[in-house]
Design brief:
61% helix, Winged helix-turn-helix transcriptional regulator, 5 helices, WH-like_DNA-bd_sf, mainly alpha, elongated, 3-stranded antiparallel sheet
């Protein structure tokens, strides 16, 4: 029995749902990166990075390339980089909306609170 598309999408996003995996994908946007450079940028244990890279590799969105004793990782396609850019745009809009709401709330705190009769309650 085939998995419904919405379920496959949910599994895909669940696979992306780890901060280390997202950071790895961000670092790979500009081309292949050796594992040693990923380790220095992400600052986690090598075994933890290896586990997260394995998840990304099994999903097919990253590939590993060996050059001598150096193993590098790269995005399997450009669509993942576009997805990360789209996520940044969405988050930017959400945060901008939240900051506007925060500014309104802060402004409301500066205005005197009036009682039903019109008198300032703070006096």
């Amino acid at each position: 029995m085939q998995v419904p598309l919405y379920q496959a999408k949910a599994e895909f996003f669940r696979m992306l749902g780890h901060p280390v995996r997202i950071r790895v994908l961000e670092l790979l946007q500009n081309g292949p990166v050796p594992v040693r450079d990923l380790l220095s940028e992400i600052e986690i244990e090598p075994s933890s990075l290896s586990q997260q890279l394995a998840v990304l590799r099994r999903s097919g969105i990253v590939v590993s390339v060996r050059e001598g004793s150096t193993v590098s990782y790269a995005l399997a396609g450009g669509d993942v980089a576009e997805l990360l850019r789209a996520a940044r745009r969405i988050l930017t809009e959400l945060i901008a909306g939240q900051s506007e709401l925060l500014a309104e709330l802060q402004q409301a705190d500066l205005q005197p609170a009036l009682t039903p009769g019109g008198a300032d309650r703070r006096s």
